């Protein structure tokens, strides 16, 4: 699918990888709706890329529906969905005092990263399915975000790894399910990236993290993630795939 002229939805577009994707899609000529629970971040990015900001909790069906309605009213029906929103956390199953980890913490991560991703997909895909097909009958493209933690989860990453493994695991079934509607589904599993969260760490910690990457020995750039996401939209034969973007990194146990 040619990005130019298409309406696109970017969840988590108010910062980090989502912001980079929103900027890249706008650069390529898409009409971008920035969906984020952070209203200020969404407004800032949307203003800078000439898009629309939609404050949205991806786990809330009413929120997502309202955001899709607002985006469609401004830009027309969206054929591109970039699911970037998510949270990260680490907590050992058994704390130092011997107490078990709170179940609510596990549930929150899975609800946002996995259930929230699926929630946006189901609502956006139903709209895409009603559109006229483009070349090859294509009606839409959905790109999700997993993590290398889906495959190499570290100590304390049970919730995060489980949620991202779920995103990776539903990629092929989603692609098969939505094939009849001409909607492709792919997932990117990023490694260590220079997002605002990581850049808050001390320089020596960032250096240590970067040194664990075989090559190139640096943190990934959000622009590199965005470039891959845009390529997945443009490459019409890429479907049902989970692509690691990690410089050949394989995470150690801790």
UniProtKB/TrEMBL annotation:
Superkingdom as given in the UniProt entry: Bacteria
Pfam families: adh_short
SUPFAM superfamilies per UniProt: NAD(P)-binding Rossmann-fold domains
Signal sequence, renumbered to the chain: none
Keyword field: Oxidoreductase
Oxidoreductase found in the keyword field: yes
Family: Belongs to the short-chain dehydrogenases/reductases (SDR) family.
Protein name, UniProt field: SDR family NAD(P)-dependent oxidoreductase
Source organism (scientific name): Ideonella margarita
């Amino acid at each position: 699918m040619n990005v130019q002229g298409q309406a696109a939805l970017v969840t988590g577009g108010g910062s980090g990888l989502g912001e980079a994707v929103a900027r890249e899609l706008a650069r390529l000529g898409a009409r971008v709706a920035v969906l984020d629970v952070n209203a200020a971040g969404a407004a800032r990015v949307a203003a800078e890329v000439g898009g629309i900001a939609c404050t949205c909790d991806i786990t809330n069906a009413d929120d997502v529906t309202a955001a899709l309605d607002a985006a469609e009213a401004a830009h027309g029906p969206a054929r591109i969905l970039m699911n970037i929103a998510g949270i990260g956390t680490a907590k050992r199953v058994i704390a130092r005092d011997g107490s078990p980890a709170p179940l609510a913490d596990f549930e929150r991560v899975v609800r946002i990263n996995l259930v929230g991703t699926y929630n946006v997909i189901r609502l956006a895909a139903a709209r895409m399915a009603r559109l006229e097909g483009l070349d090859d009958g294509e009606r839409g493209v959905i790109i999700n975000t997993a993590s290398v933690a889906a495959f190499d989860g570290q100590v304390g990453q049970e919730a995060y790894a489980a949620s991202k493994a779920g995103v990776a695991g539903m990629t092929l079934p989603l692609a098969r399910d939505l094939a009849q509607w001409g909607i492709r589904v792919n997932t990117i599993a990023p490694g260590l990236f220079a997002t605002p969260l990581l850049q808050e760490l001390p320089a020596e910690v960032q250096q240590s993290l970067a040194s664990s990457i075989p090559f190139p020995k640096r943190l990934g750039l959000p622009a590199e993630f965005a470039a891959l996401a845009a390529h997945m939209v443009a490459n019409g034969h890429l479907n049902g795939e989970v692509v690691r973007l990690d410089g050949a990194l394989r995470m150690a146990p801790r």
